[in-house]
Write a structure and sequence with these properties.
With 318 residues, the chain is of the alpha/beta class. The protein has two domains: 170 residues, Peroxisomal Thiolase, Chain A, domain 1; 142 residues, Peroxisomal Thiolase, Chain A, domain 1. It contains nine helices and 13 strands. The strands form four sheets. A five-stranded mixed beta sheet has the order 1-7-6-4-5, sandwiched between helices. It has a four-stranded mixed beta sheet with strand order 8-13-12-11, with helices on both faces. Strand 4, helix 3 and strand 5 form a beta-alpha-beta unit. The longest helix is centred in the C-terminal third of the chain and has 22 residues. The chain binds oxa(dethia)-CoA.
């Protein structure tokens, strides 16, 4: 028997406010038709004024704990993937730790933008396999609506807010995280970044060379998924579900096609959530499970790419 980090529960939270594509037509030169056909996005959720990343992350965490039948006292560590922490520091993770009433263990953030949840899951797996923690709460939570330049039609229509969380626990057996593949190349920093931070004294806005990011995504995502599958000793034929980062339906389908997998093996939520960065994979996993798509024993491949560029893939037997 092999010790593995096994998924014990999953949950998500989406803010109440739903913004359909048509709402952008009043303020920028765009159309519901353009957004749908170029991205697959139909609507997204935005946080209310005063609602924070820590709030929505903690809500997703509570849902995941309830799904696992566990309480916060059972958790040893919290890892949060986010690029939209409420403050520069403390970390979003320690804020959620406080919000959840956890006074023991440890919590920290991972920042790999849209690939953040892949990096966080891999870190959690490492903590479990090295004996540092037995149960880890892994949260992806984002409020990208706070980073938008509302005059920029090439980015403002793409992103949404939301949070997803997953509980991993050490268990002997066949299920759990089977393999991961992580990559980054900082020479691509200008393709996708926020033009603010401590160097400017401003929060800044998201800037993206969409076409270039698209090209890298199509080239790199199938490759990283294949590498992770290879490390797990599996092939595309063994895959029950691809759960991709939800940025653009055209990237999602091109990646599935490159992997030789039909779209009925892909969990797609981009139409309802837009791009929620590090929250997109746990949101899609949670929705995929709720829809009855992902079932115990299924081989699930997650893959994502984002600012950095940073990209990677994790293979899980659910
Ligand atoms: O999560 C991190 C990873 N991010 C991504 O994966 C995003 C990757 N990139 C993409 O998803 C796509 O490149 C976009 C959705 C951002 C853009 O789609 P595209 O098919 O690459 O369009 P484009 O940038 O080539 O633009 C085509 C045209 C341009 O007009 P011209 O120059 O041909 O006259 C744009 O100005 O569409 C125009 N355009 C828009 N028109 C209506 C750009 N944004 C909009 C808009 N509404 N919102």
């Amino acid at each position: 028997m092999t010790l593995r980090a096994v998924v014990k529960g999953i949950g998500h939270y989406l803010p109440d406010r739903v913004v359909p594509n048509a709402e952008f037509e009043a303020s920028i030169e765009t159309s519901d038709e353009w957004i749908r056909t170029r991205t697959g996005i139909e609507r997204r959720h935005f946080v209310a004024e005063g609602q924070t990343t820590a709030d929505i992350g903690a809500r997703a965490a509570r849902a995941a704990l309830a799904d696992a039948g566990l309480e916060i006292g059972d958790i040893d560590a919290i890892i949060v993937a986010t690029s939209t922490p409420d403050l520069t520091f403390p970390s979003a993770a320690t804020m959620m730790q406080a919000e959840l009433g956890m006074r023991h263990g440890f919590a920290f953030d991972v920042q790999a933008v849209c690939a953040g949840f892949i990096f966080a899951l891999t870190n959690a797996n490492g903590l479990i396999l090295s004996g540092q923690a037995k149960r880890v709460l892994v949260i992806g939570a984002e409020t990208f609506s706070r980073l938008m330049d509302w005059n920029d039609r090439t980015t403002s229509v793409l992103f949404g807010d939301g949070a997803g969380a997953l509980v991993l626990a050490a268990e002997e057996g066949e299920n759990g995280i089977l393999a991961a593949d992580l990559n980054s190349d900082g020479s691509f920093r200008d393709l996708l970044y926020v033009d603010g931070g401590t160097s400017t004294g401003t929060i800044g806005h998201l800037r993206m060379q969409g076409k270039e990011v698209f090209r890298h995504a199509v080239e790199k995502l199938a490759k990283t998924a294949h590498t992770a599958l290879d490390k797990a000793g599996l092939t595309a034929e063994d895959v029950d579900w691809i759960v991709p980062h939800q940025a653009n339906l055209r990237i999602i389908s091109a990646t599935a096609q490159k992997m030789g997998l039909p779209m009925d093996k892909v969990v797609v939520t981009v139409q309802d959530h837009g791009n929620t960065s590090a929250a997109s994979i746990p949101l899609a996993l949670s929705v995929g499970k709720a829809r009855g798509q992902i079932k115990p024993g299924d081989v699930v491949v997650t893959e994502a790419i984002g600012g950095g560029l940073a990209w990677g893939s994790v293979v899980i037997r659910w």
